[in-house]
Amino acid sequence: MSEGGRVLEVNKSFVEMFGYGASEVVGMAAVDFVAPESREAVAEHISTDSPEPYEAVALRKDGTNFDVEIRGKSSEYQGRVVRLAAIRDITARKRAEKKLREAEHRYRALVEKVPAVVYLQEIGGPDTAMYMSPRIEALTGYSPEDCRNPELRWLMVHPEDRERMQSEDESPVRPGEVVTTEYRVVHRDGHTVWVRNESVVVEDDVTGSRFWQGFMLDITEAKEAEEALKKSEERYRLVAKATDETIWDSNILADEQIWNGAVETMFGYPPGEDTGERRCRSRWRWRGVVGGVPFQARRR
Asked: Is residue 109 included in any domain, yes or no?
């Protein structure tokens, strides 16, 4: 309790907190109990009689500092207007907050070095992501700030994949469930990028809110290679069907052979599958006629 900025009375907790005797503090200025960097703020709250809580750095008798939260208000005491102040030691809370900030800084630094887009998105909440790593700009041409636009989330998805992705997004999910999907994204400059999106559902123990926590990888090169392989295989099949020469492939490890339809003419095998290819396992013997000359082949 203070009057005119000077202490009138304190309780036992104050004495233990600051290390003074109860009689020592009577008459001392209230600002004497805070560190120099907090004195202006304390003096302002006292002079304006502000009831709002605020934080300050307190000063013990031995000169050590600690963090406090102060709440003050005016009251009548023995016919006089005095200021009552409640002081709470928040050192542990401030220390925990500092450790949390440091951990978040380390986590953010790690995430931003990962060669993938890392994100956090509330399920059923606003369409803008709560966090989007800077890698999103290299992948899509849009910055994390651009991604705060709720309309951009679906505009980035290729029109042919958009309906499927929206349907998957509305499907029920359980905490801990991992969802993996592949789709196309339209880059800011107009070209198409294939991405693999892998995310897990996490739930806040306190609020019960659920979130998508995941990452996106650029798989464009893999998709292009896959498509090129399909086209190459299709060209091979067309050539194999069209040629009159026997073409075969032998897988030694699987003890399996594949050959084209020409083997039917050359060796007299009956028609095979629609693809014009046949498979044979174990030991085999070929017999046929080539140019009117009997021919025999045997696998050893």
From this structure: no
CATH number for position 139: 3.30.450.20
- The token pair at 234 is 């299709």
Q: Which of 190, 218, 246 is the last residue of a domain?
A: 218
251 and 183 co-located in one domain: no
Using the predicted structure, report yes or no on whether residue 109 has a pLDDT greater than 70. yes
What's the whole-model pTM score?
Answer: 0.52
Domain count, the chain: 3
Render pLDDT for 272-281 as a digit per residue (tens, 0 to 9). Answer: 544 444 444 4
Let me know if residue 69 belongs to a domain. Answer: yes
Shared domain for 151 and 197, answered yes or no, is: yes
Q: How far is CA 300 from the centre of its chain?
A: 57
Tell me whether residue 22 is in a domain. Answer: yes
Instruction: For residue range 175-218, list pLDDT tens digits in order.
Output: 888 899 999 999 999 999 999 999 998 888 888 888 888 999 99
Domain range for 172 is 114-218
